[in-house]
Amino acid sequence: MTQINVTVDGVSYADQVEPRLLLVHYLRDVLGKTGTPIGCDTSNCGACTVLMDGVSVKSCSVLAVQADGAEITTIEGLANGEWHPLQQAFHAEHALQCGYCTPGMILASADLLRDNPDPTEEEVRDGLEGNLCRCTGYENIVRAVRRAAQAGAGQ
Ligand code: FES
Ligand code: FES
């Protein structure tokens, strides 16, 4: 077992973990952060996306020990008293149906807007190419990200 110290959604944790434990399993099974779903076993879908020191990562392709010393933000920590502008925009634009992809879409979008606060439609589509949605056809997701950008989500 290996000791890790990690901050998740603003709370510090110190845990002994197996070196092979994936970050997504640490979040879900050790910390109970089930807002981060697992959508595939091929690192393909992006449903498990979280922010690690502000950068989006697929938490099924990161070991928990690699997050030692890092600050992780999950969908459960994104709202700060009120919904994050991306959450508000996804709601307003009906950018989800089953919602399975939504935590990953929103966190990947947060990273995208941090790099590019006013993306074009094409830039949103490029930025979210690692996140799959089987319900929406993506149109409303793209609209939501651009709406959040207009609301200053990336600034
Ligand atoms: S569960 Fe991580 S990419 Fe699908
Ligand atoms: S809303 Fe169902 S997978 Fe995206």
Task: Please describe the structure with a list of short key phrases separated by commas or semicolons.
155 residues; DNA polymerase, domain 1; five-stranded mixed β-sheet; 34% helix; alpha+beta; Ubiquitin-like (UB roll)
Structural features, described:
- The chain has a five-stranded mixed β-sheet with strand order 2-1-5-3-4, with helices on both faces.
- Strand 3 and strand 4 form a beta hairpin.
- It has two domains: 2-78, Ubiquitin-like (UB roll); 85-150, DNA polymerase, domain 1 (Orthogonal Bundle), CATH 1.10.150.120.
- The mean pLDDT is 97.
- The radius of gyration is 15 Å and the shape is globular.
- The protein contains six helices and five strands.
- Helix 3 packs across helix 6.
- With 155 residues, the chain is an alpha+beta fold.
- Bound molecules: FE2/S2 (inorganic) cluster (FES) (2 copies).
- Residues 38-40, 43-48, 58, 60 line the site of one FE2/S2 (inorganic) cluster.
